[in-house]
Structure formats: structure tokens, C-alpha cells
Amino acid sequence: MGVMTGKAGLVIGVANQQSIAWAIAEKLAGEGASVGLTYAAPNLERRVRGLSARLGAETALPCDVNDDAAIDAACAKMAEAHGGIDFIVHAVAYAPGAELAAGVIGTSRRGFLDTMEVSAYSLVALARGALPYFRPGASMLTLTYIGSDRVCSGYNVMGVAKAALESICRYLATDLGRHGVRVNAISAGPIRTSAAIGLPNFQEMLAKRASQSPIRRNVTHADVANSALFLLSDQSGGTTGSVVWVDGGYNIMGTWADAEAAPAPVAEALEH
Ligand SMILES: NC(=O)c1ccc[n+]([C@@H]2O[C@H](COP(=O)([O-])OP(=O)(O)OC[C@H]3O[C@@H](n4cnc5c(N)ncnc54)[C@H](O)[C@@H]3O)[C@@H](O)[C@H]2O)c1
Fold first, then answer.
1. Which domains can be identified in the chain, with CATH numbers?
2. Which of 12, 84, 215, 263 shows a CA-CA span of 20 to 30 A to 66?
3. Which of 63, 47, 66 is nearest to 194 (CA)?
4. Which has the minimum average pLDDT: 30-44, 48-62, 177-191?
């Protein structure tokens, strides 16, 4: 018996085994949840069905988040199979590559709208699709990044979309609170996934982050999945509208000591 036993929901954003959504899905299923996976496009169906079978589930549903009818059908099928919906994981983002490279100044109208639709508006669309089926105590979770409120090289229009996503999270938390539904976000540190490796200098950023974070390592899929479990379970019943950092503490840093030159302050203090 796990903390998610008796709960059912959809995890949206599994493309492969490196997807953060897959780590979350495995964690939830391991804690007793009935997890329905979705795939964004027909070419992903076979892989997502295979992953779904590994969870001991049959549910792999088509769901392009730009398609309201697909969202409604996925929510209805999940609710029909399990009597309602207790959680939705939104781990979806997209920006045309040329837009990411163009700086915000070079963002086209079309590229801006496409990025915002998939990466931000889709949380609203999913909330609306699932609302008729949410059971009291239900929880929604989305994934964001520090590029929402700091300028991160190469993140550009995606940072703008993440700022909107975090704001949507707060407004939805207010709209849905009266229905007993909570909405939160995890702001994760960089993790090697198919979306992330498309960002310029990703490898270099991973190395820097490991040395610049208080915990002196990069966060893992497991770190994010563990926090996701907390936010999706009843253990976090008093938390909504929050952006929870799972970034090894990187966001608290203002300046960085040169790791080689600086004395280790704790060791120094212990000497006195
Ligand atoms: N990897 C990181 O370093 C990192 C850090 C912070 C936040 N995030 C966020 O985590 C989330 C998951 O990304 P990931 O890193 O696991 O990469 P990923 O490529 O595995 O996941 C992105 C998912 O978005 C889906 N998607 C794109 N367009 C879609 C559409 N129209 N309809 C439905 N699904 C669509 C893709 O199919 C894919 O499954 C994203 O929101 C990302 O911004 C990632």
C-alpha cells in the first residue's frame, strides 16, 4: 500500500525513458497510483504504449495539448476507467528551434504564439478538460525552469512562456481551490532529456551548475519525481499555487566563490 493507492490520473509529456514525466509516472505507479500515459503524436504511440505496459497499465491515450477534443477524450476515458481523476501531470514544452536561437528580439509572432500555446496555455486547457472529473483532493503539477524570471542564455521565448505558466499556476490554484483541487509547479534544475539537449551550451551548463549549486551536484530525475510525489499526494494538502524549487539550491545563490581558490568555510570554522 503506497501513498497514491486508490488514486488515478494522467501523466502528460512522456516521449521516452529520459522524459521527466516518465520518472514521475514510475514513481506514482510504484506508490500505488493508476497512471494513464498520453502521446503527443502518432509516431510516439508505440513507444508510449510499451512504457505504459511497464507500469502494468493499459492506458496510453492520444493527446496533443493543442487539441481540446483530444484533451476532453483523454480525461473522459481516464475518468470512466477509474471513476474520476485525482492528478494531472503537465510536463510539456515546445518552442521552434529557430525561435530559441533568435533571442527574444528575434521572436516571430507565429513562434511566440506556438510556444505559448503548447508550453503555457495547455495547462489551462488540461484543467478545463479534467474539471468535470476531478475528485476532491485532486492535484495538478507542472514543470518550470529558472529561465522564467532570470535571463538564461539560449532560453529566450521559452523563458517568457515559463513566466506565463507560473502565473497560470497561481491563477488556476485560486480558480480550482473551491473545487478541492490544488495546482503547483516544480522548478527543476537542468536534467539531460530530449528537450534539454536541444538548448545551446547544455553540456557546459550542466557542468557549471553542479559546481555552483549548494548541494554540489546536478539534480536527478529521481529528485524531481520524489518532489512530484509529495505535491501530487495528500501529504501536500496545504500547498497550492506554489513553485517548488528542485534545483539543488542554485536559485538562492548571488555570487560564486572560485571553487579552487576559496577556503571551505565549514572546515575553517571547525578549526577555531
Ligand atoms: N530537462 C530539463 O532540464 C528541465 C528543467 C526544468 C523544466 N523542464 C520542463 O520539464 C518538462 C518536460 O520536459 P523534459 O525535459 O522531460 O523533456 P521531454 O522532451 O522528454 O518532454 C517534453 C514533452 O513535451 C511533449 N509535447 C510537446 N508538444 C506537445 C503537444 N503539442 N502535445 C502534447 N505533448 C507535447 C513531448 O512529446 C515530450 O513528451 C518541460 O515542461 C520542460 O520545460 C525540463
1. 8-271 (3.40.50.720)
2. 84
3. 47
4. 48-62
Q: What residues form DSSP beta bridges with 61?
A: 38
pTM: 0.96
Q: What is the mean pLDDT of the chain?
A: 95
Give catalytic residue positions: 145, 155
CA of 214 from ligand 1 middle (Å) equals 26
Chain centroid, CA 206 distance in Å: 18
Give the cell for residue 164.
Answer: 506565463
Between CA 8 and CA 17, with CA 62 as vertex, the angle to 5 degrees is 75
Q: Which residues does ligand 1 sit against, CB inside 6 Å?
A: 13-15, 19-21, 40, 63-66, 91-94, 118, 143-145, 188, 190-191, 193-196
d(CA 99, CA 102): 5
- CA–centroid distance, 13 to ligand 1, in Å, is 6
What tens digit of pLDDT does each residue of 186-202 get? 999 999 999 898 787 88
Is the confidence at residue 20, as pLDDT, over 90?
yes
Degrees to nearest 5, angle at CA 241 with 5 and 104: 120
Interval 89-97 mean pLDDT = 96
3-state secondary structure 191-203: CCCCCHHHCCCHH
DSSP string, 172-221: HHHHHHTTT-EEEEEEEPP---TTGGGSTTHHHHHHHHHHHSTTSS---H
Ligand 1 mutation pick, 90, 92, 218, 220, max ligand atoms within 8 A of CB: 92
